[in-house]
Structures are given as structure tokens and as C-alpha cells.
Amino acid sequence: MRVRIDGVSVVIDDTTILGGVDLVAEASAITGVIGPNGSGKSTLLRCVYRALKPTTGAVHIGQDDVWRSSARQAGLRTAVVAQDHDLDNDYSVHEIVTMGRNPHKGVLDRETTADRAIVDRALERVRMDWAAHRVFATLSGGERQRVLVARALTQETPVLLLDEPTNHLDIGAQLELLDLVRELGLTTIAALHDLNHATAYCDRLLLLHAGRAVAEGTPAEVLDADRVAAVFGVRSAVVPHPLTGRPHFVTASITGSAEEEVPSDPTSTGRR
Amino acid sequence: MRPTARSSPHLVSGTGFAVLVVALVAALVAATAFAIGVGTVDVPVGRVVAVVWSHLSGGTAVQDPLTDQIVWEFRTPRVLLAALAGSGLSLAGVCLQTLVRNPLADPYLFGVSAGASLGAVIALTSGVGLVAGLGVAGAAFAGSLISLVVVFVMAQRGGRLIGSSLVLAGVAVAYLGTAITSYIQLQANPAELRGVMFWLLGSVAGASWDDLGVLAAATAVTAIWLTTQGRSMNALSVGDDTAAGLGVDVHRLRVLLLVAASLLTAAVVSVAGGIGFVGLIVPHAVRLVVGPDHRKVFPVSLLAGAVFLVLVDLVTRTVDRPNEVPIGIFTAALGAPFFLALLRRRKRALR
């Protein structure tokens, strides 16, 4: 299911957090939202999953306007792996994942055998079934993220939203999580920090800077060295990955001294 | 390979939960009957049951008038008030702790009870005028509503309630109310002062049937509504954004929870005074036993809060007979050690 963001802006206390962003996330594709800290990545996602009402603009999922339908409807269309998960409680992994069934249940409904089967399958899918009866807060960071993806799966939504899903994960766990997301094949919008993850896993990228869309397109179109220098303030170059041969981003500080420079490197173009 | 846990990590789950609920209902009935019997004149449990039954069934009084009066007019309303206050404060505590995701939240942190105390103390000491006309309970209720409105206005930004602002505004309003209350106490004459002190520390003594109606209705309505909100509150208790992603209208739920908890607290405080600690500790103790799922936490808190306060009230009137000790002193003295023992168990379980 396609997600269309039209001219979304968010103004809080006279500060413009997002200034008129447009984006179309195609069905079954992974769309990456990249940009420096504070560029508005999370805010944009929050407008899509109905946590924050845009000051102007609209978000459509399929044909439906997110902000003209109910909160529960949103829970049936978008599943979120957010950044704000509280750990000061003793929910078991099973209880956390079962919450994904909430939008499907009436206020007095109990979980059925079918619900429990969905929860079990989701936990198996992320290889966390062994931890069903562990306390969520006692798991490692990577395990917790996988459990949250399992909860998103139990929501059985066409759209998956990920807000910096690889934060605080070791490198192995980061790649494992992103591989899993790609396997799922859902319409995915992910706010990402690592430019190489963005190039390797995303079909399309949206580059945000200070609340505005700077570029939108395929990773190769969006991440050119001059633009990266302007937005992130780093020098960069694209080299072939020694193991996979795919384009790989290497970066260096913009204030780096001259003797670090490889004089004959033709790809280093980002220096101002 | 990691060890695979085969069953729920919570102390009580599955059929154990049903057993716990049944046991608490039985404990509440037994504690109530026993507590009605104990006092300056002891009445055997069998006669308590007979008197209560004769009133409930509308039959003729089978007991002597004195026993009948003691049991039905004095003791029963008192014990029921203790039970309702315990339930109401516990439910309000669950709501507020989830609302702000702060383990220290309780009905007394939000300025509601300070406002109620101020209203009550003005009514107790002024003797004339508009406030006195409301009566102590009416003035307490008015005071709590005024403080609620102030906290509400201070803690919202652009129509959204901010959790941390809610705690801070509540604490500030509570201190302000307490300051004014203290000043009025200093001006009060010694006769009034004893009444004020007793009220501030909370008491279910002297309860009559008339005191129970509003509180019973408030507790029942809130309890029924909360039964429908368990899933949403589970989602809210792990995070605002997560809850929104799970289809919860976070802002609306916050407002409703704050209003429900405040009205419940106001209803308790206006008839029973400032009974502290129950609303803070009962929900935590319950979570340590059944886990954090609100669909289990609500019914168990409702029952456990009632049993706890009925028993505490029993202690307050038997420990120093024939004198009575304010109930607020014993809620903490008896509750804290029990709670610390549970907390120790949790630390072991999380390892």
C-alpha cells in the first residue's frame, strides 16, 4: 500500500520543525529518510503514524487520509518500531508482542488461539521464540529491537515504519535487523543514520536538512559527495566495497589536515 | 544456547490469577465481617452476618436494637468506607502512574488532595460563609476540582498534556495548597486544630451511610470504564509514540485518565481525608505479583486496596483501645515493610 505525504509541515511554538515535505513511498519498497540529527526524520514519521498532527499538509495511506480516520484505523494500517520504549516495567516478551493485536480487538475481547498463533509465528520469524516468557527489559538491545519488529508483524499492517531501528545495536545486530526488514517485503519507511545502510537496503531515499527535503530519488541520485558535504559537513567518497563490490561510502572530517589526503584520489570531491 | 523460559515471568499467572482473584474476594468478605464485629463492644461474626442479612433482605430485625444499631449504623458504613477508599485510591494510583509513566505518581502528587485538604480545613475553621455552607466534604471536593483545573492548564501545551509538566505542576500546586493549609492551622484555635489534624491524616471514623453514595458511584463508574481501557493503557505504559503506533489516541486517553483519577481522589478525600500511601503502593505491589498487564492490575488493585484499608482501619481502632489512631499513620507503617519484601523478590526474579 502506497504512502503519500503532501506538503507536511510541523510548527511548534513558532519553530518550524518540518517545512512542507513531500514524499511518495511506493508499495513493497523500502524508503529511507536520512539527514543529520534534528533534521526532522522522526517528526515526519510521527506524522505518518498519527502521533503528531501536521500543522499543514496531509498524509494518505492508500486512499485514506490518516488524520481524517480514527487512531485505531491508523493502528491497522501502520506498525511502528519507535524509539521511546520504556524499560521500567516487567512486561514479558509475549505480553509486549501481544500488544500488536490491540487494534484488531474490541475493548472487551480476549486473545484467541488465532491471536496467540500470530504472536508465536512473529516471534519465530525474528528468531525470538525462545524468549517469549522472558522479561522484555532484561534482553539485549538487538534482541529487544527484534521483539519490537515481531510486535509490528502481529499488527498485520501493510505499512511498516522504523525510527532509527539500528540505534545502540552492535554491527552484526544492525545488519541482521535490516536483512529481516528487507525479507518482510512490506511498504517500509525507515529513518536511518548510517549512509551505507541507506544505500545498501533502501530503494529510494529522502534527504532532509533543517526540516526541508533536499533531495529525493535512488540512493545513487541522492547521495552525491557535494550534497553530503553540504548537509552533513563531512567529506565523502564512493568506493567499491572490497567484499561485495557494491558502492560504499567512506567519510572523513572536513577539517582533516592535508597530509592525511591521498593526493591522487580522483573520487574525493567533497572538499570545500 | 540461552535457557528457554517455559512459563510467565510473573509471580502469579494463568489459573493462579483466577485463584488470586477468588481468594481476594473471599478475603474481602471475611475481613469486612470480622472488622464490623470488632470494637468497643465486640459482636460475634455470626451475629454481624445476621444483622447485615436482615437489613439487606428487608426482613424484620432479629437482634436486639443496640447490637443492630452498632452493626448497621456505625460499623458497617465505616468498614465499607475503608473498603471503598482503598479501592478508589488504588485505582487512581494505577491511572496516574500509567498516565505520566512515573513510578512515584500517586493521587497526592497531583495537588488534588492538597486542594481538597485546603477546602476542608477552610470549612473546618471558618464556621461561617459560603465555604462552611458546602460542608467539609463539599468544600474538599470543590478544592480538589480547583486544583485539578490549575494543574491541567499549567501542564498542557497546544492542547497536549505533557507528562513531566503534569508532575511538576501537580507538585507545585500541592506545595501551595499545603502552605496555605499550614498557615490556616497556625491561626486555628486548639479545639479546631485537633479536628483539622485528624482530617489531614485521614479517617474513616464516624462514617455514615450518606457518605458512601458519591464514592461508591465514582468507584463503580471508573472501575467499569477502566475495564475497557486495559489494552490501551498497556500500550501507553510503554511509550507515547508506541501507543500511537498501536492505534491509541494518546492525548484523549491522557485527559480521560487524569479526570477519572482526580474525581476518584476527590471523592475519597472529601469523605475520608488524606489517606496517604495506599494509592502509591498498592498498584506497585499488585504489579510485582501479577505483572504489568492492566487487565489484571485493575481488578486485583481494586480488591487488594479494599482488603488492605479494611485491615489497616481494624488496626487503628484496636491497637490503642479505646483511642483511635489516624489511619494514614498505619497505611505506611504496615504497607512499607510488605512492599519492601516484594521489591526484594523482584530483584531476584529479574536476575
TrEMBL record, chain A:
Annotated SMART domains: AAA
Keywords, in A-Z order: ATP-binding, Nucleotide-binding, Transport
CDD domains from the UniProt entry: ABC_Iron-Siderophores_B12_Hemin (cd03214)
Gene Ontology terms for molecular function: ATP binding; ATP hydrolysis activity
Pfam families: ABC_tran
Gene3D superfamilies per record: P-loop containing nucleotide triphosphate hydrolases
Residue intervals of the ABC transporter domain: 3-235
The keyword Nucleotide-binding is annotated on this UniProt entry: yes
Protein name: ABC transporter ATP-binding protein
Upper taxonomic lineage: Bacteria, Bacillati, Actinomycetota, Actinomycetes, Pseudonocardiales
TrEMBL record, chain B:
Pfam families for the chain: FecCD
Keywords: Cell membrane, Membrane, Transmembrane, Transmembrane helix, Transport
GO biological process, one term: siderophore-iron import into cell
Membrane topology: Multi-pass membrane protein
Cellular component, GO, one term: plasma membrane
Primary localization: membrane
Annotated compartments: Cell membrane
Transmembrane segments: 79-100, 107-124, 130-154, 166-186, 255-285, 297-319, 325-343
Cell membrane found in the keyword field: yes
InterPro entries, per the entry: ABC_BtuC-like, ABC_transptr_permease_BtuC
Superkingdom classification of source: Bacteria
An example Gene Ontology molecular-function term: transmembrane transporter activity
PANTHER family listed in its UniProt record: FERRIC ENTEROBACTIN TRANSPORT SYSTEM PERMEASE PROTEIN, PERMEASE OF ABC TRANSPORTER-RELATED
Family: Belongs to the binding-protein-dependent transport system permease family. FecCD subfamily.
Protein name (Swiss-Prot/TrEMBL): Iron ABC transporter permease
